[in-house]
Design goal:
It is built from 10 helices and 6 strands; from the N terminus they run H-H-H-H-H-E-E-E-H-E-H-E-H-E-H-H. 28% of the residues are buried. Helix 4 (42-52) packs across helix 5. It has helices at 2-5, 10-13, 19-35, 42-52, 58-67, 146-154, 177-185, 202-216, 224-240, 252-259; strands at residues 107-117, 120-129, 134-141, 165-168, 189-192, 220-221.
Length: 260
């Protein structure tokens, strides 16, 4: 029949793609990407699509992302400021890279990072609960000081005496009487990374890379008040909406609920 009709045989086996289905999938990919604040890559988008019942390979998702100009913030190279001050106190690394702690608020880790407010550097401090990677305390200010760390502790909603161990790197902002008094008051043990070893505080380092990429990179805030408001919004999104690969693609709050 193909010969009589002068039609190529390959056309008999050719099935036209369901363009409507592709358009629907494309719209979902764009929506998920935008709702992730331009942060999700193809793997997290695939996870969200699986939940919605879409079947799409990573390759197809990447193709559709490229067609729509969807570039994750994580693909952009960033400048890293090196720390200069060192805390030489004779305090050991009690945590010893044991990052998988399932008891809520048993161990918290912390660090500070920088953001641009107008033409000056400002700083963010967050305190992370090790068991579910939740940001339990946070603060921001114009100076990189112990007061910033203290303010982050004051935002923790739980009783501070529930915390057994507080681990940080050897930054001088953590070496201060105000911090020492707080730890003594609530009977919290201290743990410090070894000198020049960021892997000892890997969870905090990884969280700050996320914050730098998703929240601070390529942004200039107009005032400290704007920074505080935006940080509050980001922490809420981070804890309640953003899925984490290390938590089996659950949010920190949902992971905490699964533990309890």
């Amino acid at each position: 029949m193909c010969e009589k009709l002068k039609i190529a045989r390959s056309l008999v086996y050719y099935q036209r793609k369901n363009k409507r289905k592709d358009i629907k999938l494309e719209k979902e990919i764009v929506r998920i990407f935008k709702e992730s604040r331009n942060n999700y890559g193809s793997r997290k988008i695939k996870h969200e699509l699986d939940i919605l019942g879409y079947q799409a390979s990573l390759r197809k998702i990447r193709i559709l992302m490229k067609l729509n100009g969807l570039v994750s913030n994580y693909t952009i190279k960033q400048y890293k400021v090196q720390k200069q001050t060192i805390n030489n106190d004779n305090i050991g690394n009690i945590l010893n890279r044991e990052f998988n702690n399932n008891k809520y608020l048993d161990v918290v880790v912390s660090d500070l990072t920088y953001v641009r407010v107008l033409n000056k550097w400002h700083y963010i401090c967050v305190i992370i609960n090790l068991s579910n990677r939740e940001i339990v305390g946070y603060s921001c200010g114009s100076h990189k000081t112990a007061e910033l760390v203290y303010k982050a502790f004051s935002r923790i909603k739980n009783n501070l005496s529930e915390i057994r161990l507080f681990h940080t790197d050897r930054g001088n902002e953590f070496k201060n009487k105000i911090i020492e008094d707080l730890l003594v008051t609530f009977n919290i043990k201290r743990s410090l990374s070894n000198k020049g070893c960021p892997y000892d505080n890997a969870v905090a380092e990884a969280t700050y890379k996320i914050i730098k990429t998703e929240f601070a990179f390529n942004r200039i805030f107009n005032s400290l008040e704007e920074l505080e408001l935006e940080l509050f919004d980001y922490v809420n999104w981070y804890n309640n909406i953003r899925i984490h690969g290390s938590l089996g693609y659950l949010t920190p709050i949902r992971f905490k609920e699964c533990l309890s």
